[in-house]
Amino acid sequence: MHGFLGRHEYQIDEKGRVSFPSPFRRVVSGGPLVLLQWQSSHLDLFPSETWAEIQKNLLAHRKAQRDGGAYLRRITASAVEVEPDAHGRIRIPPWLRERIGLDGTVLFIGALDRIELWSPSSFDEQLGEEVEDDGFAAQIFG
Known about the structure:
Layout: E1 7-11, E2 17-19, H1 22-27, E3 33-39, E4 42-46, H2 48-64, H3 68-77, E5 79-82, E6 89-91, H4 94-100, E7 105-110, E8 115-118, H5 120-128, H6 136-141
Antiparallel strand pairs: 1-7, 2-6, 3-4, 3-5, 4-8, 7-8
């Protein structure tokens, strides 16, 4: 399995377009990508295969929870399909850029099954916060 790795910074142009990192283009296999905000700090960009699994999870949640429909609406109302254009750029709608403070530079972070889009300053701030080590690293890396 190939995953998304690394960090890449690109400038947003006046039309809200940003170059999609070429290492990530090689991992995405056809179909549109789904861009959405489900956390306040950043946007997530899902390839179609990953999004199909998330859709199943959302539908199961809606059926199982009384308030599942409200949660599903919140997620899908903040989602848009994007596809790199002929120049390898994607367009981030203004309302999504404003919600996370994207202005000028987008930081793409590879997060294995998805790509996170951050304001560089927000990412640095989040990275600087101390994370409690609950043994997770030892479980993963041995």
